[in-house]
């Protein structure tokens, strides 16, 4: 198990909190969760710092978004270098994040499904323990309603006036009935009052100020930088002069590779999409700065846990792909940063793998709140404190693709709707099995091959690793009722790998 932390001497006030095992009512921290949509981790400065040059700058040295406010959170808190979605599409990942359950156990194994009534969200647990809870922005856990403002079910968030189910429009207006999206609006007509990222931030700041006596939990879910790649002025032209290069992985031959890795059908206009994508991220970072200023102005910054994360990544032309839905890191790996000045070490990078399923049990444990249900996810709160996990801890996470083939208007350069796979991921390796008859099992040595181009599955030097990870997948599938391991092809390949040990 790898675990890297900076050496820090804890102040006496922090030691007393950790030794006591929790917080008194007056110490109970506020919580702000800033959640983006379809966010490639390489676009954040704090993640580029963790990567070699060729990994940090896949679109060229000049293709960089400066993200000082998000970076500040990382430098003053804990950054997980390898956090993964349970399924790298919106609804399943969000459901796992909210419920601590795998997709097959929370009722949301593809987009536009409804989170099970039996799932107890972290919002509900916090509310039952005296927190004022508010949710602002995109939800995507209440079926096909679009946009569906203020759903009847609040998912544990008492103030859900600015919660909406799904959709990606670029202008919000206030009406007598509440907020509404202008679906016909030109993004160039939007400003800091009407562009969704700014608008939702304003509502979050108002919620924070109303509840600054605490404790409160505010979940702020930006619908960006998800496509359509459009952003308001002046962000729309900030990166228009950049000459985006094709990532080296986009130029590789995909012959003989699994269906989930096929790409190389990129449109000529997509460099403009990248400039707009960067602009959306810059707008997000500026609004993170607004949140930090609001917390400081209210005098509660030090006693507020701030989490920055996303539901999944975006391939952003890596491997000739856009969007998400595949096990490759640019799709499945998400930023996860947590900062808590009053109760957490600073400047720590965690190299253990984390799943979004681990968030809810970890948050509740860190806040000393006893869960009322059983979670699939693990309690990683010790890592949040910069401490080591028990020796028995197994450093591995599991991912799966969406199950049905869904009609989509995406072009052929995205494989999100035509892949059926399951993966086991450790800090060093990623093993993926696919249901498709022509797809070979794929093992990536993430340390030697971070571009994920070389298949080590048949390499005799990796036989024991393949066998161990296959056994881990089998154990996971049986323990957590994942039907994917029962698919005849995958089942046979897993058993064969185990027997070859």
Describe the structure.
This protein has 501 residues and is of the alpha/beta class. It folds into two domains: 28-384, 3-Layer(aba) Sandwich (Alkaline Phosphatase, subunit A), CATH 3.40.720.10; 426-499, no CATH class. The protein has helices spanning 12-20, 45-48, 53-56, 68-75, 90-99, 103-106, 122-128, 196-210, 270-297, 329-332, 359-366, 381-384, 463-479, 488-499, and strands at residues 30-36, 78-84, 132-138, 159-164, 172-175, 178-181, 216-221, 304-310, 333-339, 348-355, 397-400, 421-425, 429-434, 442-445. Strands 4-3-7-1-8-9-2-10 form an eight-stranded mixed β-sheet, with helices on both faces. A hairpin with a 2-residue loop joins strand 5 and strand 6 (178-181). The radius of gyration is 22 Å and the shape is globular. It starts with 11 loop residues before the first helix and ends with a helix. 51% of the residues are buried. Mean pLDDT is 90; it is low at 1-22 and 404-417.
Name its key features:
501 residues; alpha/beta; Alkaline Phosphatase, subunit A; eight-stranded mixed sheet; four-stranded antiparallel sheet; disordered N terminus
């Amino acid at each position: 198990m790898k675990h890297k932390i900076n050496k820090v001497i804890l102040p006496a006030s922090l030691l007393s909190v950790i030794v006591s095992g929790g917080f008194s009512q007056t110490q109970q921290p506020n919580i702000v969760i800033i959640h983006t949509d379809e966010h490639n981790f390489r676009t954040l400065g704090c993640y580029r710092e963790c990567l070699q040059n060729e990994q940090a700058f896949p679109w060229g040295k000049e293709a960089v978004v400066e993200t000082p406010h998000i970076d500040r959170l990382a430098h003053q808190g804990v950054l997980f270098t390898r956090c993964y979605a349970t399924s790298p599409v919106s609804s399943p990942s969000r459901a796992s994040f909210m419920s601590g359950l795998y997709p097959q156990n929370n009722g949301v194994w593809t987009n536009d499904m409804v989170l099970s009534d039996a799932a107890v969200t972290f919002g509900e647990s916090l509310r039952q323990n005296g927190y004022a809870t508010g949710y602002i922005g995109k939800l995507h856990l209440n079926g096909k309603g679009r946009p569906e403002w203020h759903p009847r079910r609040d998912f544990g968030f008492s103030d859900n006036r600015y919660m909406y189910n799904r959709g990606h429009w670029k202008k919000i207006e206030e009406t007598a009935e509440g907020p509404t999206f202008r679906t016909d609006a030109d993004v160039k007509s939007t400003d800091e009052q009407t562009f969704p990222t700014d608008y939702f931030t304003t509502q979050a700041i108002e919620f924070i100020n109303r509840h600054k006596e605490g404790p409160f939990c505010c979940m702020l879910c930006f619908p960006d930088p998800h496509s359509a790649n459009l952003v308001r002025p002046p962000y729309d032209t900030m990166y228009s002069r950049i000459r985006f290069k094709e990532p080296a992985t986009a130029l590789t031959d995909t012959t003989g590779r699994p269906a989930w890795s096929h790409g190389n059908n990129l449109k000529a206009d997509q460099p403009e999409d990248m400039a707009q994508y960067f602009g959306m991220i810059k707008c997000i970072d500026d609004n993170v700065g607004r949140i930090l200023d609001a917390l400081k102005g209210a005098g509660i910054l030090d006693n507020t846990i701030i989490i920055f994360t996303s539901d999944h990544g975006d391939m952003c032309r890596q491997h000739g792909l856009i969007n998400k839905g595949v096990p490759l890191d640019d799709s499945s790996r998400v930023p996860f940063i947590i900062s808590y000045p009053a109760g957490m070490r600073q400047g720590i990078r965690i190299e253990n793998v984390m799943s979004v399923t681990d968030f809810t049990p970890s948050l509740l444990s860190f806040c000393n709140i006893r869960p009322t249900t059983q979670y699939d996810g693990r309690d990683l709160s010790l890592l949040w404190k910069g401490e080591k996990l028990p020796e028995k801890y197994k450093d591995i996470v599991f991912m799966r693709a969406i199950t049905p083939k869904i009609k989509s208007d995406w072009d052929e350069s995205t494989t999100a709707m035509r892949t059926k796979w399951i993966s086991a991921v450790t800090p060093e390796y990623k093993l993926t099995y696919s249901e498709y008859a022509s797809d070979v099992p794929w093992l990536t040595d993430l340390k030697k091959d971070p571009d994920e181009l070389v298949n080590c599955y048949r390499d005799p030097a990796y036989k024991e690793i393949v066998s161990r990870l296959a056994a881990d997948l089998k154990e996971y599938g049986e323990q957590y009722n994942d039907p994917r391991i029962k698919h005849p092809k995958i089942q046979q390949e897993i058993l064969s790998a185990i027997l070859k040990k």
